[in-house]
Amino acid sequence: MKKVIFYILLCVILMFTPNIQGQDIDKNGLEAKIDALVSKQVNDSTPGLVVGVVHKGELIFSKGYGLANLSYGIPNDSKMVYNIGSVSKQFLGYAFAMLHLKGDLSIDDPVNKHLENWPEFKHTVTLRHLLSHTSGYREAYTMSSLAGRIIGVDRLSREECLEVVRRQPELEFIPGSRYTYNSTAWVILAEVLEKVTGVSADVWVENNILQPLDMNDTQIESYVGEVILNTAESYTFNEDEGYVNQESNRAIFGAAEVYTSIHDLVKWINNYRTAEVGGKAVNELFLDPFILNDGINSEYALGIRVDAYRGLKRYRHTGGHEAFSSQLSYFPDQDLGIVTISNYGGRGRIATANIADLLLADYMAVEDDKEHPQIKIEKEKLEQFAGLYVMSTFNRTLDLTVSGDTLTIGGRTKLIPTSQNTFRIDGWGGKIRIDDLANGKKQLTAESAAKNIYNKVEKWTPSEADLRIFEGDYWSDELETNYHLIVKDKKLTIQHRWLGEISLESVANDFFKTDWGYNVKFNRTAEGEISGLSVYSGRTLNVVFHRKEK
Hints:
- The protein is an alpha+beta fold and 550 residues long.
- Helix 3 crosses helix 10.
- It has 13 helices and 29 strands.
- The longest helix has 15 residues, at 2-16.
């Protein structure tokens, strides 16, 4: 009798316990639903993409769209290999978690513990900072471009990447205080792994991660021009040249350079759940997101993002190299992984979130108006908020305008008021607050996985005479390059031997932007004389050029 009662109680418990791991999903009509997401620009005569969906360890959908090779008419296929760009970072991140647990290194070691002749800065930079994009080191891609070496045209070597940091005069920020995506950090990590193990990073990952998982089709490019078996080509398209076959100008494992297939990625995705390679402790360390110095969760762990999408926990990374564009997302509570890889630049891209919407709608949170109350702000007050805001790090701007009775960013993104000075944006989990400062100025704070401060500035329309005071030669010791500034066609223009001419558009007093995505701020002495300029971009801060005396 006791056994019968126990069995009944067990059944009742199971009936009312939610199925957290590996929840069921509706697979009916999945192919037709995914087909409908494919861009109309993709057909049987164009490049395209491959898609894979894995649920409960099984590949439930895989399909190629368009061509993998235009010259021979070879179609895209889930068994072919594709360059997955920065999605590659997680393999090296997992390697560091394995070495940490093994005791061969600590991810909290200072970087200069493992590298000879490595610069020491005021603040210590650790391996964990490199792994989480919080180091404050320079980013080699931007620095190379500023020096006139165009990424995608000129070859970039590992040694050149390391030299960028060796020549860096100071850290861009205190380590751990900011999340700034930095592929150069991963080049440094590959160098550290080789010093610690005595084996090159690509070989170590192949021997200790790829082979044990039977990822036999996966290959790591170790030098430019290496033959990768069964690989697709990637293409861009423009009206003047037609299709252009994009080629790699670098082969620096760590940041990228993994070629893999949908079928092999299924094995890697399953390791998130099983920890077949590495074990539970390694997996937990690998998936543990970095907490910034101010206590904010950066939502980035050791080479993989750990965040939430519509209320569902998600591991995610994206990548782009040559004209490949890759995305990998895994929802651990539903045991669902989604991969999309395009070989058609931006034209063949499908967001993994769009496929998740098809399969996980029943589990996703529905935004409740009670959770996000919307209030009314008088138009007069909104107009006081409108204007140009420059980020405190000078690498971004926000132009707030009023459209109808709504405050917007650039006339497109609507800011939905939740109080008299706070706003939200549909589909974004953060918040925006606009405060009045004691000096009478306004300050905007945008906070999500990081806190960014923007200060309101007055827009400036200079005369040609105003621009003439900036003319002259500006030299960077760090880059060993010179920028010659002149006024041409009523615009302040940078002239450089390799970069050609770059027009500067005025934003605010002493502050300009370029159509290259860089901002330029002129620096002045205490007496008000122009002493130089500093260049800022999304990934790089305060590259200083000193003005030469005439």
